[in-house]
Specification:
Elements lengths: L12 E7 L2 E7 L1 H14 L2 H9 L13 H7 L7 H4 L1 H12 L13 H22 L3 H30 L1
Antiparallel strand pairs: 1-2
Helix pairs in contact: 6-7
Length: 167
Amino acid sequence: MICESCKKRDAKIHYKTVINGVVEEHHLCEICAAGYKEDLINKFPLHKLFGSIYSTPDVKCKNCGLSYEKFRSTGKLGCSECYDAFGDDLKNIIKGIHGHTKHTGKMPKRAYPLLLIEKDINRLISELDTAVKNEEYEKAALLRDEIKELKNKLELADRSDNNDQMD
């Protein structure tokens, strides 16, 4: 395809614009595209648009002193306390990369039963909400008791894990 500007060189840059629902395709060579670059940046300052979405006050980790801006530039955290200092921002970054913030990959076999209990709790909570909406209060009471029992199991398992780590 030939450049639509100079009509001499092969077009290497292809982009579309959508303005008020009107789609236009543009095909430019690298030289002509370089001439339009400044104009495009001024018309559509995407760095400002996306920068405002992700901009946060320059938070610093209280433990190591790493600033959020420094983390963003290097991609490396300074210490384990940085996870708490940059918590919500890190969650947004991780969600942007992975699509979610909950681990769904491999896990130790001993953790699998606990995961099943958590899934059961979430399922029962959903059923409880439905039962309350449908005014099925007897069923809701049974579900509430089952949820409480499963939460107690999780708490006991968590306590035993913490005791194991202290030894």
